[in-house]
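pinging the channel bc i need a second pair of eyes. not urgent but kinda urgent?? the chain im working w is below, pasted from the shared doc
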Amino acid sequence: MMFWKKAGLRTLAAGAALAVGISLVPAAKAQNVEWSMATPWAGGHWIDLGAKRFAELVGQMTDGRVKINVFPAGTLGSALKVTETVQSGVAEVGHNWPAYDWGIDRTGVIFGGWSGGLTPEEYMLWLYNAGGAELWKQWRQEVSNVVVVPCGILETEIFMHSHKPVRTLEDYKGMKVRTSGAWAEIATELGASTVVMAGSEVFPALERKVVDGIEWGGPGINMSAGFHKIAKYIVTPGVHQPSGAHECMFNKDAWAKLSDKDKGLIELAGKLTTYETFIGYGKDDIEGYKFLTSQGGNEFVQLDPSFIAAAKDASFKWAEKQSASNAWFKKAYEHQRAFQKDIANWSKFRLPIGITQQ
């Protein structure tokens, strides 16, 4: 998916580069590199709009000095172990959701998105106005020994495509659901049993009723995945994942080979990709929701306010527990919570979305 013509991109990139003090004139001694990017994605939405678009922008903005070839899940390593693939140098670059590193450090859910976290707009502000991006980079360098550039904002997800309607906690209890990240544990506190699986396994698991329900993405990506064809009920809102973010990570030795100029341009490419994913997923979700609600084969179900309140309560209790034993989790969580308190004032002077259409 393309949102800017090349001419417009170069104009924007030039202006942005000047603003941050980066020259777009190629460095005489800059080293040309061709790298491989590992991803957790089998194909489609996230690999095309996120990973491939980032690679394209890096190539354009560095005038071809940095070329990144994107590979689907499993080609260069395990789909859920992109960080290890990049650390080892099997791939110089990775496109990842940081919460997939759940088993190594649960701090990843604060940056990747979780049930107590931020909306898409709030993520943009936290990352680039409130220091969230710099904190993310510090965490990855210290814990994972990789260089990270935030490179994607995710949509608010559909709570579940399900074989049964879910409105209350009583409905949810005893269900077997596919999920990931923090919700894999928080959901069990609410009575469900959870299964974490790679993206390529989600559709067949739901189709064969290995699981009762799944969460994956927003209306746009879920429509393209076809979940509505195999499960009658679509449950909203996505209290488990108000939004999230992707990271583009680099092997530290590979990163060191770049000029400072190209490093700066890659950082800028990450920001541009973050913006493009923000508006791109939003566009897809508007179209996807319109399609899903017009087909007639599904029933949309709204979670009861009591369920939403219980989920929020369980989420913050879970986070406080993690903070007690993980210094980096505590640091990132408290940083994000402080921002949430600041932005809570928005409701006092901003109109809710859609109110002008009522």
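so The chain has two domains: 33-155+243-284, 160-241+297-343. and The radius of gyration is 20 Å. — does that match what u expected or am i reading it wrong
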